[in-house]
């Protein structure tokens, strides 16, 4: 189930209010937001862990492509691809370089 950013943030804040207790946060969330879908203590623990590890409460979907770091060398390689074939597309360059199109 996908949750809104506000719901995820509320769960993390209530986890803090509950002193870091997942079960305490579960109870507080039910009291404060009875109209919302009620998370289990395990969901609250995962939200906290995700925030601790990534700095975000939202999940990142792995598209299967590794992230390419945009370095000067990477940018030079992109420019060489364009010089060699000026009618090429961003997708074709990304595919040839093993990068996501948004990094080209």
TrEMBL record:
Residues 7-58 form the DUF4817 domain. It comes from the Eukaryota. InterPro entries: DUF4817 (IPR032135). This is DUF4817 domain-containing protein. It comes from Ceutorhynchus assimilis (cabbage seed weevil).
């Amino acid at each position: 189930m996908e949750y809104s950013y506000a719901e995820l943030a509320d769960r993390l804040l209530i986890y803090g209010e509950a002193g870091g207790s997942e079960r305490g946060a579960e109870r507080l969330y039910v009291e404060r937001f009875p109209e919302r879908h009620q998370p289990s203590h395990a969901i609250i623990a995962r939200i906290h862990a995700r925030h601790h590890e990534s700095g975000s409460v939202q999940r990142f979907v792995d598209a299967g492509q590794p992230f390419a770091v945009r370095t000067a060398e990477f940018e030079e390689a992109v420019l060489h691809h364009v010089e060699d074939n000026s009618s090429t597309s961003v997708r074709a360059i990304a595919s040839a370089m093993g990068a996501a199109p948004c990094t080209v």
